[in-house]
Every structure is written in structure tokens, then in C-alpha cells.
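Input record (Table S2, row 713):
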Amino acid sequence: MDKPAAKKILISPVTRIEGHAKITIALKDNGEVDQAQFHVNEFRGFEKFCEGRMYTEMPTITPRICGICPVSHTIASVKACEMIQGIQPTYTANLLRRLMHIGQNISSHALSFFHLSSPDFLLGYDSDPASRNIIGLAEKFPDVALKGIRLRKFGQEISERITGKKIHAMGIVPGGMSYPLTIDNQQALMQWIPEALDAVQTGIRIIKDFHAANADMINSFATSPTMYLGTVGPHGEHELYDGLLRFVDAEGNVLQDQLSPTRYLEFIAERAVEWSYLKYPYYKPLGIEKGIYRVGPLARLNVADRMKTPLAQAEFLQFRALGNGQPVHGTFFYHYARLIETLAGVEEAAMYLQDPEVTGTHLQTFGRWNNATGIGASEAPRGTLFHHYETDDSGKLTMVNLLIATGQNNPSMNRSITDVARQYVHGAEVAEGMLNRVESAIRCYDPCLSCSTHAMGKMPMQIDIVNAGGEVLRSLQR
Amino acid sequence: MPVITVYINGQKISTESGVTILEVCKANNIPMLTLCHLKGLHDIGACRLCLVEIEGVNRLLSGCTTQVADNMMIRTDTDRIKRYQRITVELFFAERNHVCAVCVANGNCELQQAGYAVGLDHIRYPFLYPECNVDTSHPWFVMDHNRCIMCTRCVRVCTQVEGAGNWGVMNRGHDVRIISDFNTPWGESSTCTDCGKCVHACPTGAIWPKAVAQGQLTKYPEMIGELVEKRKLLQ
Ligand code: SF4
Ligand code: SF4
Ligand code: FES
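Output record (iron/sulfur cluster complex):
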């Protein structure tokens, strides 16, 4: 008999992430994992079809890329428009935009943690996949599921109370906001704060218990070091809405600080790979190999010096202690970082809601086309997001480039699933729970594939195990 | 004008002669769907939404261009009319590229309102997806042919009210387009006075001011009719 050929395992579609994707696990001749690749198959050509439109339409068009982080797109977009016009939003508008951005972040993070990831922690990685989801969670841990659902609702209600819409980011316009926050709505949102704090703290307890009970797994789960990119405020504080960029290397040294997002092309280059529509971005000065960097909650907490609010700051110190003076590289800690950001979000929401100007009515400044180039950035739930527009002198878009968080995490996602697959997959006849661990490495990043490849909707994903000859030995599809 | 009697949907109505069925309906609060009609402009019966059935006439006629006659038996509410109205609105959507979700006129568009009025929930005709120009050359306004329904309200307001005659119509069938001057970019027009009346007259998101974002568009088409009345007073 021939000796078994090298094999590949294909996990497709990865369940419980947003979008459509496929994982291929390539096995060597001895059945051990050679490498794993994360493919994204849909391409929506968003940038192309925006060309020829007026730049002022982009804040309305781009939130339609994604139903999970529309506010981040709108914010990056209005900032690009404001650069084209050379104007600044008003103080009140900034407060309202911050609130909307926080609201979106809270609901996105709540979705990621409570709905998509906590079933693994509370029900177990090896539990029945049919009920390893929010429904199964609601049966066994109804209080936790309810808290998650309510927390998500709080996030959505922020945008609803300001603009009348739950999901799409209407009302955020170049120069400011279209709608004020009424005093009634301000007070209604303040009512939520204690409950929202309690829900996040429940999440933090769950993740810490899981850390404690599974220290070996957590500390060895996809721990390859990378660089990090995130936005910080003027004093190095954690920042999602305004602020400037900071790159830190794998040892935590600050390589670039207070960098204007308008200079992103000087520091980020992208390489296309033939097996995925996601491009491979990297930190240009260090090249493709060394310049691999991550964005998102883990990155933001690794680049920041501190949080803005007390409860989040206390958690932040515990988080940073995990790295012993270095960045925290363990991919699993994305979850913890996400919850710390959610905690910060609730505290900051309370802070902005108490600002006397939050119900102000000076909402918008006005401008017209003045500059050909507009570049705007914001910290989306999944990481730094860039919108870059070039226009002709009538304001018509001639070039659109959207650099999306999930795209930037793509190289690291591949590295992480390879790490995890090597650890848990030995041969094609691997248990489903082990493949779930590989998938869960992807879920740590909470990738939103619909926007990163500009693909539509939520589709499932599949895992293929393939031999060295490319023959699919096993294919899991759920 | 002599007073005559007409019957609309069975209701007996006295009206002066020489007026259109649409005018009588308006005066008597009888709803009638319109798109190309705009008070202050000459009616041309372009959109075919204001359809009426008249006893003794086989085809459907447009209420905005048909004058009442004594003892006319008119119906505005038959199933046949509703069927044709729905087809017409569907064809408007299928003909050009209407993406309401990202349109500046979303929530403030007469075509959308017509869609609601005929109960449009899907479109049965294949979309044509024509390639349409977006003319951004004017310093203040945009002309987006993707959203134009060829009602020619812009053409008529520009000629009949402003007297500038910038807008015109070129080609036929699916290729028909509104043009500025002799098909030059709007920003290079030698006739446009930048008055903005066409912006208000346009029922859709085809003509809009560059300065507005979605949700901020306020059109005031009634202004055209009011202007015409005021001008009459000055004459
Ligand atoms: S013009 Fe009206 S119908 Fe057309 S896309 Fe805009 S809102 Fe929709
Ligand atoms: S641009 Fe507007 S007013 Fe002019 S024909 Fe088209 S839809 Fe009618
Ligand atoms: S309103 Fe009568 S045909 Fe358009």
C-alpha cells in the first residue's frame, strides 16, 4: 500500500463569524499540520463602484458595507470629507459622534463575546455544535444570555436615541451631526449605565474564570508575537474616535507615535495573495516578514498607556501585567481586551452623557470642496479603519481606498490558525471540538468578512483538510 | 366660465369648464397620484400616473392633461388604473439605477412616495442598469442621471418660470436624457443662472445641492407655483 499522502483539512464555513470564509489545513505526509490558511471568497468591489459619485455621498454609502460597524465607516468617511472641505465638527457634534461610536462598539463587542464566543467558554469547546450558540447558552445560562442581549441593546439604543435609527449611522454628516440629543433621551440613556456596567462585569468574570481554569490552553493559544497598531489620544490614552496612530513593535517599543492617519501609506503597504481576496498589509519600514502587525482591541490595549476611566484602567493594569512589561501576544486575550474596551465604553458613555454640551444644538459646520484628497480614520470594533478619497475639482471621486481592520489582521489570523492547528490537529480524523478550536482562533479576531472583502451578508464557512497533493480528505460544513 | 357637472367615482361635482380633471380632483379632495405635474408648470402628461377612466373612452387618459366636459363620468379608483399605476412605478425603478438606501432624497422623494402609494413591494421587470453620468460640474448642484425619471419638471421650470432654457431633452427611448445647453456639462452652461429652481422642482434625488447630506435635503416644489402666482400679481 502507498504511504498516506500529505493532507489538508478545510474548515469551511467558520461558524459564528460575520461573513463567508474557509479555512484550509494542509497536512504533511506524517499527518501533522504543515500550515493553515484562511480564505475569503467574496468580493464586492465597493471601492470601484464608489468612483464617479460625489465624495459627500460616502458617509451614506460606506456604512452600508457592514451592518456591524456602520458608525466607524461613517466616522472615517466624514473625517475624510472634512479634510476635503477643511472644516472641523462642532464640540457637541463630537460628543454625539463619540457616543454613537461607543454605542456601536458596545453592541459589536457584546455580540462577539456573548453571542459568538461565550458558548465556547460556558458550554465547552467540545460540546454539541448544534447547541454551542446563543440559543444553547440561553437554555443553560439564561441570565448570561439575557445580559448579553441587553448590553447589545444598550449599544444600539444610543444610536437610536440620537438619530432615530438602530443600525445605520444616519445623522453623522460632514461638519457634524444632523440631530441633537434631547434631554429626555439623554436621561433615558443614563438610566442604562448601571445595568450595562453589570453586564460587562459579568462578561469579565466569565473570561477570568475561564482564564484561571484553562491557563495552559490560554497561555499557549496562538501566541506568536507581532507588532501592534492603534489610535491613542494626546497623552497616549486609549482612543477610538479621534487621536493619532501609534505603532509598537513585538517588544513593546514605540516605533511611531502621534502619527497622522493621513500618512498611512508611508507606513502601511499591502501585498495581494492569490488564495484570498483579503490583501496582506504590513508595516512598511520593517518589510513583509517582520512588519506583521495586528489591530483591534488587543492591539489598542497594547499600544495605549492608559484608559480614560477608572474601572477600565484597573482592568487595563491587570491586562498589561499579563505581558510582563511586553505586549500581550496571546490571541486569546482579544476577548479580555474586548471586554475591557466595552467597560471603558460604558464608563465613557456616562462621562459624555453628563457633559452639559451634549444636548447642545450647535451641531454642524459647513464647507465645500477645497482639497482633492481626503483621508479619515477611526477605530472600528475590529481595529483601525482608513478611508482615503481622491476627488476631481468638482468633488467627484476618482479613487477610493478603504483599508479595513480585518484586512490588517489577516496575516496574523493565518499565523494564529496555523499555530492552533499545529497544536490540536493531528491527522485528518480529528475531533470536531479540535477543529472548533482552530475556528475559535479566527473568532478571537472577530473578523467581519463582509466588510474586509466587501462581501455581502453573513455566510457560513467551511474547513477542508487537504493533503500535499491538494486532495480534500475531509470537509466540515455547518 | 360656464358651470358644468361631472361625476367622479360616482360623486356628482359642479365645476367650471376649461379645467383639468386633476384640478377638479384637487379641489374636491379626491386623491390622484401625480409625478410630472407641478403647479405653475404646463402639464404634459409624461408620467402616466394620474390615470382616469372616462365612460365611453376605451383607453386610459391622464387626468392632468384632460379637460372636464359636461356630464363626464370619470373614475380614478378602478383596479385597472391601479394595475397600470403599479406597472408604471415599477418601470421607473427598473429603468434607471435607484438605490434609495444611499440616495440623498431617501425619505424625501416623490418617486418613493409613489412607490408607497401603489404598494410597491418588489419589481417584476428586469432592471436595465443603464450607465448614467453623474454631472458634478456645477459649483453648487449635482445632476445624477441615475435617478432621473424624465418628468421634465426641470426643463419646464427652467424655460417657463426662470426663462433661462438651460435644460432640454435628447435622444429617444431608453437613451433619452436630460441635457444642459447643447449637451455640455452643467457647470459650463451659458444659459443656467444658478437659480436653483430645478433643484426644487425635481421630484427625485436626480438634482440636489452639493451642500446637503442624506436626511438634510429639503425640496420646496410648491414654491414654483407660488412664484408664478406672485409674478402674475406684478404684471
Ligand atoms: S430618487 Fe427617489 S426613488 Fe430614486 S433612489 Fe432616490 S429616493 Fe430612491
Ligand atoms: S432631473 Fe429631475 S426634474 Fe428633471 S426630468 Fe429628471 S427627475 Fe424630472
Ligand atoms: S401627473 Fe399627469 S401624467 Fe404625470
